[in-house]
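ERR on first pass: missing label on line 2. Operator R.T. fixed the label and resubmitted. Corrected input:
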Amino acid sequence: MSWGITGVALRPGAEPIDLDLPGGEVTAVVGGDGAGKTSLARLLVGLDLPGTGTVRAPARGALGFMPSGSGVWGDLSIAENVDLVARTHGVRPDGDRIRRLLAAADLDRVPRRLGRQLSGGMRQKLGFCLALLHDPELVVLDEPSTGVDPVSRTELWRMITDAATDGTAVLLTTTYLDEAERAGRVLVLDRGSALYAGEPDRAWTAVRGTVREAGPQDGDALPGWRRGRARHLLVPGRLPDAPVPDLEDTVIALTLEHRDTAPAAPSPLVPVTVPADPAIEVRGLVTTFGSHRAVDDVSLTLRPGQVIGLLGANGAGKTTLIRTVLGLVAADGGEVRVLGGPVTREVRRRIGYVPQGLGLSAELSVAENLGFVGAVFGVDLPVPTALAGDRDRPIGRLNLGVQRRTAFAAALGHGPELLVLDEPTSGVDPLARAALWDSVHAAADAGAAVLVTTHYLQEAEQCDAVMLMAHGRVVAQGAPAELAAGIEAVEVLADDWSSAFRTLGAAGLPVSVDGRRLRVAGVPLDRVRAVLPDAELRPVPARLDEVMVLAAS
Amino acid sequence: MILKEFRELRRDRRTVAMLVVLPLLLLTIFGFAATFTVDHLSVVVVGPGAEQAEQFLTADVLRVEDVRPDADRADAVADLAANRADLAVVTGGSVPEVLIDGSNIFAAQSANVLVAQLGDRVDSEILFNPGLDTSWVMVPALIGLILTFIGTIITSIGMVKERAAGTLEQLAVMPLRPMDVIVGKIAPYFLLAAIDMVLVTVLGRALFGVPFRGSVWLFALAGAIFLFLVLGIGVLISTVSQNAGQAIQTAILVLLPQILLSGMIFPLDAMAGGVRWIGYCLPLTYFIQVSQGVMVRGAGLDSLWLPLVVLTGMAAAVFGLAIWRFRASITPRRAVAR
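pass 2 clean. output:
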């Protein structure tokens, strides 16, 4: 039978949702913080019971679950984790299937390493193996790839695809739209309601209006959002020959239509007096922790008005680089000049910083948090109109999007010449992400230099230049479009994609899944042809995540 | 910066509780409870000359509880062992004999002073703890304290860690019954705490020469009941805490009154009425009564049944509540339908 839900409301008052989860198919549930992704996952695995409607899920013995945060026991070794879960399910921990699973995850070489010693990517892979040990009919993965570097994410996706080709029904939740594009089916959630359910490349058909790029004739009246240097608009009515919007634009448009709102305008900005010197000048920077070189010979020049994105895995050195630039970590070598000199307290006054943890006090209200930051910088920080409804509620009780907007307002309020953002958009829905990027671009337009880290690769297009980091080093840099230049990928269109996937994988080629198409990056077309003589192959430009995987390996 | 800190503190109820409760607790304790001086000694008088002897016991601190001419020395010893009196006067010999319960250090010291004033007119003997050794009464009490410590702090941290790591959800989804999860989580701590109890008891005997006069089985029974109780407290703490920091904070709030008001440091009898009643609500108080009774005085079930019954009642209530709350946290809840 097919698993899924029928007529289930994810929260009181929300429209009931139907969703089928057929075996052999990967279904991605996308949405931001508070969209209802985790609620759906908990309902499917029986952690919660539905208020209305029915949930069709197998018995616990045939159900796999990976909670957000991996569900790996940190104080148990890999082997002990596997042992515990296998025995609970009454499966032999050394069976053939489990051995293959661990080998595919590359976890079989270090069976005695403790869960908490694993890197984020390894831990998620182990969590995935644990959910799959007993060969479940339905496996539910709650944010399996959040905080995972692009390389491990690709490997994780390969394992997920592998499980689906075995006939397992897979449901995963994610905030990354590029992952949703790879899934066979997608469910887009917003505030507990379904905006779209179906194949990802048909999602645009659900948009009632039309998404198009803004031209000089367009005023500010139409709802719009920034995509890099361009501005995209949602206009009412379906125009006949408008280009098909990508999933990012589609989801933003669907969210706007569903909420019946316009995107909030970015907060007004204090104009910046633009200095001639670069805002950040770093030469040959080395930062070490013990014997570990967290930042290894990195050079970087950031000019006023420029947005540079730092991309890389967890532990690639992004955050350490930022912290060194801000003077929070001492450099062990090289030269760092920020706003014309070393980072003193005076210089810090001219910097706006949004740390990963946001740096807000969870127990204070929006107004109190802004009041505190304003008092520190000696400026008056009014609550932005977009946040007025939440001004007196404690930050800790608000959703992530509002928290991040508050952190932005706090960092931008004193008109900083340099804006440093550490993963500013992780976890928020596409509309909130667009609003945050609007604020970033507005600051850059006003003359601020912006340094931003992300491991959401699609955000690279929002930057003027990106630096790819791996193991503390810069492995590639340049304008987003330049990075993929010269690297080929091959798209494979096969009738039976799952057997093609296995054949390519067995031949040792780095195959990944994109909906029902397969991709092989960094390998000449002839080699793919040799493995799959009958499939339809065509060369395509490499994606940034493929560039990243190739650069890091 | 200062204003911000105050605002944050105001919203953190646990810290506010610590800020308010700790000073109040310390003040009450050191104001009303922290007295080593004993203002009265309860006495039983036995033997043929009991009624005459009672006339001599005029000192203010003495409070004669019972006069029994037909009882003998053995009965007096039994009365002391059962903690019915602090000292006993045995008449019928050439001079009256005063028996002092040495397991109640401070009372025994006061009694000793009185006896010394009487000089040769009486014989005296300190029973149970002839050297008036503090360690003899502290070690049995410490056993209780150590169990409380392991039960509340270690258990609650162990439980909270699983919740914070999200692995509790993993367990809740696997084919395990809620009871399997609960027993699996608690049994190791029960075992470890039991081993600790044996270790401290054996070490206490070896290092300080603390006697063990009563029944090992009675002691083990009390230990097991008490363990259920403190593990229950630990589990309860874990169900109201989101992280280890909160668990420790809450555990300290539960632990501190037990250390100070259980009669371990300050004698309960010497405390002011209100504070003493707090002491009577704390489980450690009763465990100490049993452990000191069994180890030092060799008391039996006939005199220790009351604290044992109280402990059992508390254990059933707390452990039951803990299991119920924990169970509720790992079984599905129905979403609110509208």
